[in-house]
Amino acid sequence: MKRGEFSRFLFQPQYAYGDMGCPPFIPAAAAVLYEVQVLDYLDSAQVDDFIAMSEEEQNTIPLSTLLEVVNTLRNFGNRCFNQSRYENAKDRYKQAITLLGNREPQSKPEREKIRTAQLPLYLNLSLTELRLESPHKALKYANKALEIDSANTKALFRCGQAYLELCEYESAQGCLVSAQAKKPFDRDINNLLKKVACYKDSMDKEKDFYSKMFREL
Which stretches make up the PPIase FKBP-type domain (predicted)? Predict the structure, then answer.
C-alpha cells in the first residue's frame, strides 16, 4: 500500500476470529471486513543504509538524501517523545544532529540548508531535556537554536523555561519578554511570564526582608 491509500480486506473466519468469534461484537464463524488506510510511514531502511556508510561516503551522497534521513530520524524522535520515551527521542535527535555536523557543505546555500535542518532538532532537544529535568542541557540546546535564529520565539521560550527551572528569574524574564515581543498574544508565553514575575517578586521581597533584618542586627 502507498501513503494515503485506502483498502478493504475480507478475511474468512479461519484468518479472523474463528469459530469462537468475539462476543458480543463478532458472531461465531464470521467473515470480517477490515478497512485500512495508510496515513504515513517512516523509511528506516534508508536511515540504516546511510548510517552504515563512512563519513567520506556520506559526504558523496546528495544533500537531499541526507535531509530525508534527518527528517526521518526527527519523526522517529517525535514519535518517541509523544510516547514519553524521552531518552529514545533524545538519541534520535542527537543522531540527526551528528549526521548534519559531519556534512561538509559545498556552498553557502548548502550550509544554510544544513542550519535550517538543525534548528528544529535543537528546539526538540531542548524540550526533551526539560522533560528529563536537565535544565542546563535544555538551555544549551536552546542557545544553539538562537545561534541559528536569534529571534526564534520557541528558542527564547525554551530559554525562559530552562532559566525558570534553574531559579534564574531575571534571565528567564528577559528571554520571555523578548519572546512576548514577537508573539504578544501567545498564552503559553504570557502565563509563564506571569509565573516568573511572581517568583521574582517573592524572591525580591525575601532578599529585602533579610537585608533589613541584618541591618537591624
Answer: 1-42
Sign, Cα dihedral of 86, 88, 92, 95: positive
Write out the H or E segment, with its range, that includes residue 33: strand 32-37
| pLDDT 10s digits, 172-203 | 999 999 999 999 999 999 999 999 998 877 76
Task: Give the whole-angstrom CA distance, residue 95 versus residue 70.
Answer: 8
Domain residue spans of the chain: 1-41, 42-150, 152-201
What is the gyration radius of the CA atoms in the chain, in angstroms? Answer: 25
Whole-angstrom distance, CA of residue 18 vs CA of residue 8: 19
Q: What's this model's pTM, rounded to 2 decimal places?
A: 0.78
HEC string for 157-202:
HHHHHHHHHCCCHHHHHHHHHHHHHHCCCCHHHHHHHHHHHHHHHH
Cβ atoms < 10 Å from Cβ of 140: 15
If one looks up domain 42-150 in CATH, what number appears? 1.25.40.10
